Amino acid sequence: MMESSTAVAFLVALLVLSQSCLGSAVHMRIDNRLGPPVGVYCNAEDGTQVGYHVIPNQAYWKFSIYPNPQRTSYQCNFKWAGESHDLRIYDDARGLGFDTYHWALNENGACLLMDSIGTWQCYSWLQSANGN
Predict the structure, then answer these.
(1) Contact yes or no for 84/128 (Cβ under 8 A)
(2) Between the CA of residue 36 and those of 15, 40, 52, 83, what are the distances in Å?
(3) Which of 22, 23, 67, 97 has the most CB within a 10 Å radius?
(4) Topology of domain 24-124, CATH
(5) pTM of the entire structure?
């Protein structure tokens, strides 16, 4: 009987440890409301890459990220029609704690859906690494 409870305790400890190392999934949705297709490349501050995706006009891309104590911020670069802009799509410092972050891209930046009744908070583009 003791072996069974030790095994259960070990599995619970392993589960807790894996959650703290990997972090819980946070879901992203990025809507393209710009017009032309948008190329999107996202990565975390620690270099973890989400990857590259092209979002057609009036379409969206859904993916998940895995924040943890070493990975508290994710940023994306958006390219379309000669434009290149950056946006921090997730930052622990904002303290929002959403399970899903729903972004809508526009010419001036991107807006984040803040609740289920359609309130949006808009953010300006960050300066791109190439100066655009």
Answers:
(1) yes
(2) 44, 13, 17, 11
(3) 67
(4) Immunoglobulin-like (2.60.40)
(5) 0.77
Rounded to a whole number, what is the distance in angstroms from the first to the last CA of the chain?
66
- The secondary structure of residue 92, as a DSSP letter, is G
Q: Tokens representing 87? A: 């946006």
In 3D space, the residue among 76, 82, 88, 89 whose CA is nearest the CA of residue 132 turns out to be: 82
Give dist(CA 32, CA 36) in Å, integer. 8
Tens of pLDDT, residues 28-48? 999 999 999 999 999 998 888
What are the backbone angles phi and psi of residue 129, rounded to the nearest 5°? -60, -25
- Grade residue 117 by pLDDT with cuts at 50, 70 and 90: confident
The ranges assigned to domains in the chain are 24-124
